[in-house]
Amino acid sequence: MTTLPREKWGLTESADWWSAGQVRRQQTYGAATEMMLEVASVQPGSRVLDVAAGTGDQTLMAARRVGPTGNVLATDNSASMLEVAAEAARKEGLTNVETRVMNSENLALDADSFDAVICRNALMLFPNPAKALTEMRRVVKPTGKVVLVVFSVLEKNPYHGIFYGIVRRLGNIPPPTPGEPWMYALGDPGALEDVYRRAGFLNVSVHAVPIPRRFPSAADAIRSMRNSAGDLREIISQLNEAERETAWAEIEQELRQFEGPNGFEAPGEALIAAGTK
Known about the structure:
The chain is α/β, with parallel strands linked by helices. The chain is about 40% helix and about 20% strand. Helix 6 (about 160-170) packs antiparallel against helix 10 (about 240-255). The longest helix is centred in the first third of the chain and has 18 residues, at about 20-40.
């Protein structure tokens, strides 16, 4: 499978898409993000590093927690995404947020300089996640924690699982090879624990958390998926026009199983991993 490199998620159109989807992401990932911040012991006065922050939804949540006596540094290799994050912080009146363009696998930051490091839905997209985690461990203070969220296995996320299964079948596209970066590359709890231990962490833990996908209807779910960026757009672009139309018809039919009187709700699962320096 050809996957979209992490840096390609930073195209202006992707930044615009991520900005527009802020409310839906908060609905889906808000509770898991709060848990990530809790596990990381983010509290008033904390200095927090948010790696691969993107458009900064979790950056703002951390900034609210640390208050005026703390601060949050949001890093990403996409300047356009960080501009969205900085503007969101300004609109909310948060003066404790700083943004810097930076490679997540080579953090230009001092060692032992942050109380906590967080990373949401990004580590699985890095070419070398162990190297990135090693860098995060380097910059967190002794006994500090690095806590992140990644997607669990594809089978527990049918909103995407149905999409990938149908598109791969129609396009005769092989599944990703082990170790290849993509959205679900670290979905196995054992793999996630392993990469933490290889990075030198102590007290490693991995916990599953629900991330249900809710839309007013299956049609709305399909509309959101059609407008998606990243891996979804990349893989379906490998189909010809007729195959794409067949794929969307099959996907919508399958997704209708999650439609009920209260709208569309598909189960989903993420993993929260933590390690201590």
